[in-house]
Structure formats: C-alpha cells, structure tokens
Amino acid sequence: MSKTNEMPKEEGIDHSLNLLREGYMFITNRRGKFQSEVFETHLLGQKAICLGGKEAAEIFYDPEKFKRMGAAPKRAKETLFGKDGVQGLDGEQHRHRKKLFMSLMSPEQIDQLIVMTKKQWEMAVRKWEQMEQVVLYEESKKILCKIACEWAGIPVPEEESERLPKDLADMFESAGRLGPPHWKGRMARNHVENWLGKVINQVREGKVTPPENSALHRISFHRNLTGNLMDTETAAVEILNILRPIVAVSVFINFIALAVFQFPEETEKLRSGDEKFAMMFVQEVRRFYPFFPFVVARVNKNFTWKDFDFVEDTLTLLDLYGTNHDPNIWDHPDVFHPDRFRTWDGSPFSFIPQGGGDYYTGHRCAGEWITLELMKVSLDFLANKLQYEIPDQDLSYNLAKVPSIPHSKIILTHVTDRNNF
What we know:
By secondary structure, this protein is of the alpha+beta class. It has one domain: CATH 1.10.630.10. It has helices at about 15-20, 25-35, 55-60, 75-80, 90-100, 105-130, 135-150, 160, 165-175, 180-205, 215-220, 230-260, 265, 275-290, 320-325, 370-385, and strands spanning about 40-45, 45-50, 65, 135, 295-300, 305, 310, 315-320, 385-390, 410-415. The strands form three sheets. A five-stranded mixed beta sheet has the order 1-2-8-5-3, sandwiched between helices. The protein has a three-stranded antiparallel beta sheet with strand order 4-10-9. The longest helix has about 30 residues, at about 230-260. The chain is globular, with a radius of gyration of 21 Å.
C-alpha cells in the first residue's frame, strides 16, 4: 500500500490517561487541534485511529472496511458488553444474531413496552407523592429495571429485586472507570450473568415458561448458524444486552428533566400534545446531551480514505458525541433547538447517539426504537403529567466523566400528579 498522505499524529507514548481525563471531548479536542476528521494516537499501548463526522461514520459502518471482532478492550467486556455478545460479532454470525434482536422490535411488542412504561411511571408517582424528595436518576433506574424485566419476560425473585437495578447500572457506570468502580461493575456483571444463566436453564427445562414472544424465551431457544442452542453464558450475555441498555436510558431521562427545566420556552410547546414536536424534543435531548462518547472497531483490511492509509487490524474509534455536535453537520450545535429535527434528512450517519448505519445488517443499536419510546413517555410525565419543584442544586455535568449526568442527579420535591391519571 503506497502512502499518499501522512495522517495527523499525536505525539507521545500513550494517551489512555488523557482519554479518561477528557472523556467525551478527547476526540473532538484533537479533531479541532489538527483540523482533521481523522488522526492517529496511541491508546492501551497500541496505535489507534480516531474519526469523527458524517463521512467518517459512513466508512466506520462499512463492514468491508471495519470489523468488531477483538475491538472492544477486555475491561469493557468485563463490565459493559460481556463475552461473545452481538456487539463483537461480524459477517453472517452478526447478521444472524442481530436478526434475533430485531425480531423483538415488532410494533406489537413496542406497544406492550409503552403500556408497561406508563404503568410503571404511574406507580412511581404515587410513591413519590409520599416522599420528601426524589432523586430522579436513582428512581428512574428502578422504574426502567422493572420495565425491562417485565417486557423481557424475566421473573425477578425478591432477593434480586433490590440489587438488580444497581447491578445493571454498575455495568455502564463503570465503563470508563479504574480501580474499585471497575471491579464493582465487573462483580455486578458476574453476579447477574450467573443468575440469568440459572433462569435460562430453568426455561430450557420447562420449569419457567415466559411468553413465547419475549426476549427470555427467544434468546433461550435461539439457535446459532450450526443449529445448536447458544451456550448458557452467551444467552445470559444477550439477555443482559436487553436489560442493561434499557436501564441506561435513565441517563437520558435525567437530561430530559434538565431540558424541561432549563428550556421552558421549548417545554411550553409540549403542552399542546403535538407528538411530532415531542419526538423532536426527545431527539434533541439525544443529540445535545452526552450519552456514550465513542464506539470502537478494527480495520478489516488495508484501504485508503481521504488519502490516508488504514492498516489492517488497527484499533479505530468513532466520535459519537463530537459528530452530534459537528458544526459541519448541525447549525449552532451548542444550542438546544428541537426544531432542527423538523428538516433533518434522517441520515443514519449524521445523528449517531447510539451508533450509526443500518439496524438490520449493521452495528447500529437494535434498541434505539425502545429508547425513543421510553423517552417519549418519560417526557410526557415530566413535562405534562407531573407537578414538582426543582430546588437549588448542582445541575452541571462533567464531560470528562463517562457516563455524564447532572451532579445532583436531579432532585425533585413536592411531586404531585397533575392529572389524577
């Protein structure tokens, strides 16, 4: 392969600590410094390429150019992703496993999710009315865990019910952490995987009978390309790939509450019940606020892009947060403006809070539709159905911390039901 241009390169032996210190802004800061959508650095003791922007997302989700096998660091597998899950597969294996996940996203099952979500919000509000104050982040994790388990068809015994939302949250809260927080996330995953493994075995033995269209049933009896059932450990990982991301929507719910409070002129537009504007508001929350900073892959085979050489097996990071704030894509990207989605072209590469590309054949998050419905119901409660106060508190959030949430976790007081649902 002949070099036609030298890629901008960050000097230094390794920048992993800088990545931890800068969080969501690590790639964006250097894209600005180099005035380039692509640059080279060193992370985790190896050469790494960082990308950002719409065109970069298009090539990143091209399976001919990038693969996921072996891309995620071991630490992320131990806490966030698990071993042998759908995120780390390629080719026909990935398409076959992804088809399983997409089969859970039928209109009927999404409708069931909406009904369950409304019910859990109503139950939570009745409890909150009796509480002196509500820490929204902590409470929303409990709500979402109940929704996730009910929707997935998972029976939760009393001894697991208190621990489970904390364990699921520890998995994604520890993703960018070192030391004790990392070990906490790792122990949480081990515990939940072991428990789910026992549940899966009970399903296969006929001792537990979840609904046939549920995630628990379909994953328990899913057969791989060779016609065999997935091993119990992998099946548990894939059920966690349903539960954990649903609970992670608690991060977005906190930012919904923050947006409702900080942008009253936009919130007022929600009073009319305009579903289209509600969707635009939710999409702007997903674009404007931080969720996940980047995704990783490895170069599948040598290729050249924008006169830069990409060498097989090189670790590559795509800037999600930076792409959602790219001034080449978004007018005034640091302004909260839901109406921008009125004319958005729907590109799967310009707006990528949960990854880009195609749902069915690519690595875009299968649960994105679930996220949207959970957020729309939550927005309706926080903007229209509830009355509450937000006392003085630290509502700032730190882009160096992953995941980033308001420091106070959004404290609500004097919560009442506005509509007596």
